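step 3/5: co-fold with glutamic acid
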Amino acid sequence: MVRVRFAPSPTGFLHIGGSRTALFNWIFAQSQKGKFILRIEDTDALRSKKEYVAEILRSLEWLGFHWDEIYYQSQRYDIYREYARKLLESGAAYLADKLPQQAEGQAVILRIQPQKVEVNDLIRGRIEFDTSVIKDQVLIKSDGTPTYNFACVVDDALMGITHVIRGDDHISNTPKQVIMYKALGLAMPAFAHLPLILATEGGRLSKRKGATAISEFRSMGYLSKALVNFLLLLGWSPGENREIIEPQEAIRLFDIRHINKTAAVLDLDKLNWINNQYLKAEDPDKLVDELVPLLAQKGLIDKDGFDRGYVRSVVTLLQPRLTTLNDFPDRADFFFLKDPVMDPKAQEKFLQNDLSREFRAFAQRLESLPRFDIPSIEETFRQLVAELKIEAKTLIHPVRVALTGKTVGPGLFEVIYYLGKERSIERLMRQVKTGG
Ligand code: GLU
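step 4/5: write tokens
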């Protein structure tokens, strides 16, 4: 059975690179009906933090990468020491010289013999390593903790890992690990090194270049499905120029041999586009659940007493235009506030001229509409501009600003419908100069 693992070091948050590695492990496991194992590599006591572990677990759960087993390396030191002892006994490893004032124990070091190491990488093909540059390798440090390479090999072997799928920044570790497998007489997994992810402007990803933690993308209002879709395209494609693919279908189509060999470029415009596609297609009720806390936080609704049906209507109206969930409160505020927040520029541009006569006339027409629905609102508006012999747009923009405070938004007649007769009339009449 296929068994793969994602092995983050909890010395920081889960970032784009790590989550892509997690995704490819997870999706491969799903596609092979295998197991996805999570191994927290917390051997660096100084840099590993509980908060990071918690954040990594939360982000993986949010992305939907559920693990079948979880291990913490910090709970397995006895195991690594036992394997080191075996290598000492066989003479493959030796103890480092103890320094005069050293209080700690002695490091255990693996002797490296010159040898040919070849790996048949599932993505990159055959890789031949020059081991003459590899020095003897520390297995256990003088403080008793294992090195990354040694703990990794012991664990991959004991956990029955069949495929090691990881970023190609680990390629230089691979020959060292191969040598350790041979020294221990343990069976080797297959290796698959994922291509590098480059920043949009070239070069490696870094925080400075905008690579952010998954939790940050979450709080910026990206949907987890969209992010997973985006991560998937950083190394794989379903073919036929398709860009939108949901996990279940990706699992069906996924083939590890079809992972790209060339570096992927992080294109955040693409992420925005993908997020919009998912927002458009999302079940409005699910969006309402996500948006209610944001609306409440902005003071636009009262969390404990709001009209869910109304929020849902507004969501349906705006969802095709959203890039992120976080766009919603600002775009929709006028539906919830008593008075719309006026954009001063919009006001200056469209409410400068006195349109009292036109606004009053439109308000009266709305008032006397026998049926207040979108087609009737539009019809009465069209009639009015025809009678006044003005172009529709000379009234559409000012009315929009009067009602919403903004120059852009959903269709005006829908806005009027969802604002309701009373509030629309009130906002129109607020622009009418009395006595004029
Ligand atoms: N802890 C290592 C990392 O976070 C794991 C590398 C591996 O997958 O072997 O990069």
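step 5/5: annotate
The longest strand covers residues 35-40.
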